[in-house]
Amino acid sequence: VLIGTDGAQKTGEMIMLQKGRDKRLVRFTEPADQRGIAFLSLPGDIQYLYLPAFNKVRRIASHVKNSNFAGTDFTYEDLEAAKWSDKWVAAGKSRDQETTILELTPKPGMTTGYSKQLVTVRNDIFYPVRIEIYDRSGTLSKVLVRGDLKQVQGYWVSMDSTMEDLKKQHTTRMLVSDLKIDTGIGDDKFTERYLSR
After folding, report:
1. Where residue 62 falls among pLDDT bands split at 50, 70, 90?
2. Nearest CA to 106 among 143, 70, 66, 157?
3. CB under 8 Å, gap of 24 or more: what pairs does 59-64 form?
4. Half-sphere exposure at residue 105, Cβ-oriented, CA atoms within 13 angstroms
5. Among 58, 93, 163, 196, which has the highest number of CB atoms less than 10 A from its own CB?
């Protein structure tokens, strides 16, 4: 659900497939004008975008990974499938009974659109429930809040995530309507060929 400054809402639907921590495919199924737009994240910081209007798969260059995906408030970098420890150095910022706040800064040589992230983690399940994202100038630019947590087949999942862009005063809310876990998904789903299907 895309929510504008005036509160007007626009709704879309997408399917997300993920294998492990480093392979993810996102494809729009609604609305009609965005149907088929797809994004693929692979190991080694490799990302592809498929635009059905041009019938072309193109690799996403590092310098545009901070661009927004299909009108949402999530950038290609936000949607990538990767372990945080591969890209970020974490330092403890504060801790109380319920949560720990970690400050993440980029590892040397890493390409990112962000200068740091402050991640609030629930102590009981080690799940990140709030992420404050700072742009390259060090200004707080976006806040991601993960709510409605459910444990499904041993995995904790947020069924309701909200990304607020503080500069644009625009919000994207992602609601999970159907979830299947450990389905034995094949590697063939994470290819350029499958992306353009």
Report:
1. confident
2. 66
3. 62/111, 63/111
4. 5
5. 163
CA atoms of 53 and 96, how far apart (whole Å) = 50
Q: Which amino acid is at 1?
A: V
Residue with tokens 């720990």: 100
Place of tokens 């200004």: 139
**Half-sphere exposure in the Cβ direction for 162 (13 Å, CA):** 9
pLDDT digits (tens, 9 = 90+) for 2-39: 999 999 999 999 999 999 999 999 999 999 999 999 99
Strand partners, 68: 75
Place of tokens 């998904």: 185
Would you say 162 and 147 are in contact if contact means Cβ atoms under 8 Å apart?
A: yes
Place of tokens 């040397």: 108
